[in-house]
């Protein structure tokens, strides 16, 4: 779950970075086609960059092969990631703060996805109910439910009163440009991104700028047809009170205001300013570097040995009934997927980020113990053996630890430890 939240956060950061680049360098330019391409590429990179290092995948990190010590013991003392996991008996991860945040996030996703499906359903219903007719060579749907003209992929939607509109040809030219340039694909991608990143304010700025860019492109096409600018602006103003607020469509009068009027009159930006697009490259490099390290799970054993002692929690686990060290005890940071396993001497060392943590100690046949620990602290842990015969069985939910490749020498070990008991090769 942590990995999924990391992926969401990285995607949000990337989206914010790309949008800020647009805002400061490209927003005031008339390179509308380039801006449209930029938005599409940026949206794709926002989803791909955090995934390059597979930080979002809910997989178990691979651990180097188990080691066989000279006296025949098999042990492992590495930090590992486990998924799924139940941290303590009877307590699911869904009841942690991770679970609360996940529920809130999924609630937003479900609501916005439902809104998106409702809009698509409304459009499909109108097409089926009123049918399709040809107007100026375009597929048109005429419905009384339509307030302001809009286009959806290859369809134009109009109110019956707009059929006899003297400026209908100008409306058709505008909406036809949306259809010709396939702006509907852009909108679909951005709407899906906004559902996925609904908590990120930049996704809503991003969405608005994409739609504005589409309108700038359509406006330019109408003006190039020789339509008087003043007449066209008056037409947009007349429809400004009857907007159809749907994310999936291009309304004829979307965001008609000062900015759109300025862009209609603005002279073409000098071509030399296109070099600003090159700033995209360092942004990509910086984002890739930023996402390569903070959440990377590929740390080796040598990396962990180089950690400062102040970030380590160490300790030793012994059995109460025998007063002997317990090798193979799972030591897990509570409400996370991070932990380690005690070595042949019952000792462990775990790198932590927070000052105070809760550690869970789990071993088959012994009671699970949860203790509070601090950075740099050494813990002496004593586990009690379970007395109830039923409790000695495997729990319904037990940690799953996926290991890396196992050295063949393991199978030649002189001594094995199973459920805390020692067995020689002859006893197997």
Can you tell me about this structure?
The protein is of the alpha+beta class and 428 residues long. The chain folds into two domains: 2-53 and 95-290, no CATH class; 67-85 and 307-427, Carboxypeptidase-like, regulatory domain (Immunoglobulin-like), CATH 2.60.40. It has helices at 2-25, 32-48, 97-130, 168-180, 183-196, 201-224, 229-238, 258-265, 280-292, 301-305, and strands at 67-68, 74-75, 80-81, 133-135, 138-142, 150-152, 155-158, 250-251, 312-319, 330-333, 338-341, 347-351, 356-362, 369-374, 378-383, 415-418, 421-424. Strands 3-11-10-13-14 form a five-stranded antiparallel sheet, with no helix packed on it. Strand 6 (150-152) and strand 7 (155-158) form a beta hairpin. Helix 1 (2-25) packs parallel to helix 6, helix 1 (2-25) runs antiparallel to helix 9 and helix 3 (97-130) runs antiparallel to helix 5 (183-196). The protein is elongated, with a radius of gyration of 31 Å. Residues 55-93, 294-308 and 393-413 have low confidence and may be disordered.
How are the SSEs ordered, and which strands pair?
Elements: H1 2-25, H2 32-48, E1 67-68, E2 74-75, E3 80-81, H3 97-130, E4 133-135, E5 138-142, E6 150-152, E7 155-158, H4 168-180, H5 183-196, H6 201-224, H7 229-238, E8 250-251, H8 258-265, H9 280-292, H10 301-305, E9 312-319, E10 330-333, E11 338-341, E12 347-351, E13 356-362, E14 369-374, E15 378-383, E16 415-418, E17 421-424
Parallel strand pairs: 5-7, 9-15
Antiparallel strand pairs: 1-2, 3-11, 4-5, 6-7, 6-8, 9-12, 10-11, 10-13, 13-14, 16-17
Helix pairs in contact: 1-2, 1-6, 1-9, 2-6, 3-5, 4-6, 5-6
